[in-house]
Amino acid sequence: MSKRDYKNTSVQEPPLDYSFRSIHVIQDLISEEPRVGLRPILEHPENLAWIDLSFNDLTSIDPILTTFFNLSVLYLHGNSIQSLGEVNKLAVLPRLRSLTLHGNPIEEEKGYRQYVLCTLPRITTFDFSGVTKADRTTAEVWKRMNIKPKKARIKDAL
After folding, report:
1. Residues 6+ apart with CB under 8 A from 28
2. Is residue 106 a contact partner of residue 83, using CB atoms and an 8 Å limit?
3. What's the 3-state SS for 21-38?
4. Which residue has better confidence, 141 or 39?
């Protein structure tokens, strides 16, 4: 196999542990600075499958995370994420299977678990707990009772 062929193959990057680093903004990790950024550390950043950003100072889910299409495990617990709507950003990650958000202010929101499970139906582990069939059923019932369809929202706005 030539070097050129090797570069075109899918190589999974090792997990990145950026926990307990007092990170405020994820963009700081994507810097081109060799001592700071992901790019110099990762040969194929698009193949990153696991990242731990737990116990930092993140207040939102940075859209840069949505560029890692092979991301399957994302730890965001112990941060300062305040809006459940932030979870919507992660819906574009087709391989995301495990997510942690406990220890963030959003955990105190009514319907926290159900909202996340409705928004991210492919995840199988949430906050280090397996997602059961009963969880899925409860989340669907919660969704029907609490989330208006988009068409209804448009009519309400008129």
Report:
1. 36, 37
2. yes
3. CCCCCHHHHHCCCCCCCH
4. 141
Our CA dihedral for 75, 20, 28, 85, rounded to 10 degrees, sits at: 40
Q: Domain of 76: which CATH number?
A: 3.80.10.10
CA-based nearest residue to 122, from 105, 110, 139: 139
Residue 71 identity (one-letter amino acid) = L
Structure tokens at 118: 């409705």
Q: Which of 115, 118, 127, 132 is nearest to 73 (CA)?
A: 127
Range of the domain at 128: 12-157
Q: What is the CA radius of gyration of the chain?
A: 18
Give 37-60 pLDDT, tens digit per residue.
Answer: 444 456 677 788 898 889 988 999
Instruction: Tell me how crowded residue 66 is: count the other CB atoms within 10 A of its CB.
Output: 15
Residue 5 is assigned to a structural domain of this protein = no
